[in-house]
Amino acid sequence: MTEAMNVVTRAIIGIRPDLGEYPATISRDAAIFYAADPDQPVLGLDSMEALELIAVLEQEFGVRLADTSIRIADLHTVGDVVDAMSGTR
């Protein structure tokens, strides 16, 4: 697991401790909110949890997403978040 994936995973578990009980759920292909494919794992974060995740990741990575080319609307999966945050360092 990459450093960015570890940071994102810790942030998600910090916001939703219940997901820490099933660590395999937090995979690169897991949808953050919902999935169109019924076989895709889904974290099921709500909008407030997503905002909290953004705040935690901004602090962890030392960036403001508003100051980057990252579009929050394009972050659909854990892998999208990891890839976006990996490019901020």
Structure description:
By secondary structure, the chain is mainly α. The protein has three helices and no strands. The relative contact order is 0.21. The model has no long low-confidence stretch (mean pLDDT 90).
Essential attributes:
89 residues, 3 helices, single chain
Topology:
Elements: H1 3-15, H2 47-61, H3 78-86
Helix pairs in contact: 1-2, 1-3
Mean pLDDT: 90
Helix- and strand-based class?
mainly alpha
Count the helices. How many?
A: 3
Radius of gyration: 12 Å
**Unreliably modeled segments:** none
Strand content: under 5%
Using the alpha-carbon principal axes, give the shape.
globular
Short description:
The protein is an all-alpha fold. The chain is 42% helix and 0% strand.
